[in-house]
C-alpha cells in the first residue's frame, strides 16, 4: 500500500513538471499517459480498480469539496435546475441509451443495457476544466456543468444498483424501483444534512471554547467525508449524496464564521485545496493504470466483436451528445435561460453545443464499471468484460472529442494579467519596501539580512537567465570600476596610505564576475588603463636598452637613471624594514589592517548609496526586474564580509522590521491600484502573497519565542 501511494505521488509530481514543457496538451491526458506507464511497474501489474476503496478514498472527499463550493442560497435559487440536470436529464439519458443499447445488442437483457447506460451517464466537471484550461468557458455553461455533476453521480449509482438488483432477482417492479430510488436519494441527503449539521455544531463550539481549535477542528474536517459516506452506505442510502449535502452545510458554517477563527478557516482552505488538486490528479492516474488491462482484454476478442463494441460505443456517445444538446436547446425553465441565454438566439444555440460537447465521462464511469460483480444470481456476470470495455471506450471518445472540439469552439482564455506583469510588479513592490526600510536600520548586518530575506519574495525563476547573467556581469564590472575610482579619489588618497589603497585595489580586482568570455569584458576601465600604462612602460624600457646596445656606450647590465633611483629607494626601504623590531612590524601590520577595515567600511557605505540610487532611478523609470542589481548587492556584501572576516551564518532580525516592510509593500500596491497602474486582479494576488508572507513571519516569530521560553525554563 505504501509503495502504491508513493508511486501515485511521484506520478502527480512528475506530471506537474512535465506539463510545463507541453502546455498545449491537457493535463488529464498527461496524467493518463503517466498512469499507463505506471501500470507496467511491478506494483501495478495486473492492477484492478477496487470500487469501494476508490469511492471512499477518492470520490467521497472530492464530492465533499464540491459541496463546500456551493452555497445554500445558490442551491435554493437553482434547485429546480439542479433537479432537472442531475435527476431528470440523467434518468432520461439512462432510459433512452438503455433501450437503444438493448435494441442494437440483442444478446444483452434490458436490465444489463440499463446498467451500462447508468454507468456511462455521470459526467466529470473536473475533466472539463482540464480540457478547457486554456479556453474561455462561458460562465453560464460552466455553472450548469458544476450543478449537473453535483448529483448525477448519485443518480447513476442508484439506477445501477436498481438494475443489478433486477438482474440478481430477475424480478422487475417499477413501483419498487421508484421507492428504492427515493429511499436511497432522500435518505442520503438527510443523513448528510443531519450529520453535517451535528459536525458543524461541534466545530463551531470548539472554535469558541478551545484555546487551539485548529488542533481539533482540522482533523475533524479531514475525517468528515469518510465518516458521513460510510454511515450513509451502512444504512443503504447514497454516500455520494450524503457527502455533497454535508459539504453544503460546511459552506454555510464558513459564511457564518466570516472573519472569526480566520486561522482555522485559512488552514482548512489550504489543506482541502491541496488535497482536492492531488486527488483530481490521482483520479486520472487510476484511469491510465486501468486502461492497459482493459485494452489487453479488448484486443483478445475476435474482430467482429471488436467492431461491434466500437460501433456501439460510438453510437452511445453520439446519442448522449444529442440528448444533452436537445435538452439545452429546448429547456425553457427560468434558471436554464439565465445560464444559457434566451431561447431562439445564436448565443443559446452556441451554449447548447458547448454544453453537449462538455459532457465528459471520467473515472466515476470507470469506477462504476469495475464495481460490476463477477458473479450475480449465483452465476458468472454475463458480458461483464464487454460492459467495462464499452464504458472505457465511451470515456476515451468523450475526452478526445472535447479536447479537439472545445478549443475550436471557445475563445482563448484572456488572463487578467500575465506572469510577466506579476513578476514585474512583485519586483517593484519588494524593491520599494527594501529602499524604504534600509534607511531606517543602522546595523549593517541586520539591514543586509532583512534585505536578503525580503528579496526571497521575488523568487528566482526567470525565463531570461542568460540576459540576467549578462546584465549582472556588466553591472558588476561597472561596480568594480566605481569602487576603483572611489579609492583613487584625492580625498581617499589623502587619508589612506598608498600601500593600503594598492592592497585593497588588488582585492577588488579579484572579485569574480562569473564566466566572462572576453578579456575586454572582464577588465574594468581602471584595469585597462593600468595594463596600457604597463605595456607602454615596458616598450619604453625595451627601446632604451636597445638604443644603448646599438651605441655600445654601456654594458648590457647598466640601468636607466629612473631604475637606479627605484633600486636605491627599495634598498632604503629594505634597510628600514630590517632594522624594525618584531613589535614594530606587528604594529605596522595592525595599522595597515585597521586602515583596510576602515576603507572597506567607507567603500561599503558608498556602494550602498550607489546601488540604492540605481534602484530608485529604476523604480522611477518603471523597471520591475532588478534581479541583476540584487545579485550585485549580494556579491558586494559577500566581498565586504570576507574582508571583515565576518562569516556569521545567521543574524537575528526584529520581527517588527519585517512587519514594517510588509506594510510598505501594502502601501505600494494600494498606491498602484489608486493610480490605475496595477489591475485589481493582480493587486489581489499581491495582497495574498504579502498576507501569506506576513502570516508565516508572525508564526515563525511565535515559534522562536516559545523556544526561547523553553530554553529559559530548562536553564
Automatic annotation (TrEMBL):
Recorded GO CC terms: plasma membrane
Topology within the bilayer: Multi-pass membrane protein
Subcellular location per the Swiss-Prot or TrEMBL entry: Cell membrane
Annotated Cation/H+ exchanger transmembrane domain residues: 15-410
GO biological process: regulation of intracellular pH; sodium ion import across plasma membrane
InterPro entries per the UniProt record, alphabetical: Cation/H_exchanger_CPA1 (IPR018422), Cation/H_exchanger_TM (IPR006153)
Keyword set includes Endoplasmic reticulum: no
Keywords recorded for this protein, A-Z: Cell membrane, Ion transport, Membrane, Sodium, Sodium transport, Transmembrane, Transmembrane helix, Transport
GO molecular function, one term: potassium:proton antiporter activity
Pfam families named in the record: Na_H_Exchanger
The protein, known as: Sodium:proton antiporter
